[in-house]
Amino acid sequence: MAQRPRELTPFVSARHLFGAELRRHREQAGLSLERLAAIVKYSRSHLSRIEIAEVMPPPDLAELLDAAFGTDGIFGKVYELAKREVHPDQYRRLMELEARAREIEEYGGQLVPGLVQTEDYARALFRVSNPAASPEAIEEKVAARMSRQALLRAEPPPHLSVILDEAAVRRPVGGPQVMRTQLAALIEIVDTPTSVVQVLPFDHGEHALAGGSLKLVTLEDRTAVAYEESIGTGTLIEDSDTVSAHRRVYDLLRAYALSPSRTATFIGSVMEALPS
């Protein structure tokens, strides 16, 4: 029995509208996904994921679809909207993508990123960001953050790269003991078969990500997204050209950062300087 096609929701976002129009025109033309894949030179699985709005269309696909269906630039116009919109479900979508990631690369400017935080470090941050929250609400947030870290223990786990600004290493979140435990946890993953941690020292000076944070998530098929975050807000970026630009910035920071072995030594010296 053939699997029933997933119901589409073109009203959710421009990305969903692009996928719904792709399916509608494909079916009107009497084309299977396999046949359309042969015409536009994209894989069947990739087109299927675009139809259900699981991934952003690549930049050149809109023009190829307009040519294939004779739609006079409609797909190009919808793509221009899709690549600029802010998705209302972006954080949930980020977590879904993280769970399927083969590579996660993250820069932390002021704080240790959530994927490698200890419980007490995360708890201190949640408390200070919402002092009126009940202890139960805080613990629920801590548990949710710790549950996300399970993806690092998957088989196989994603390859993890973390660049920490020196400020993130020196800021004693939660007090000396909490920070000492957090720094020790970072040393454990500083250089393993699936993880690398590097510190970008103050003496490097200014750089393109100063004052912000960045996460790059790459899937098995090399589809990549970027996620920028500031206080209380975040932006999921799926446009491939913009993601590539962010990757170049990240790669440049990695070149300027300390090596993993020097990072371990540096973090160890910060631990020793913490008051007992």
TrEMBL record:
Segments traversing the membrane: none
Pfam families: DUF5753, HTH_31
Entry-linked CDD domains: HTH_XRE
Start and end residues of each HTH cro/C1-type domain: 22-74
InterPro entries the record matches: Cro/C1-type_HTH, DUF5753, Lambda_DNA-bd_dom_sf
Name this protein carries in UniProt: Helix-turn-helix transcriptional regulator
Source species taxonomy: Bacteria, Bacillati, Actinomycetota, Actinomycetes, Kitasatosporales
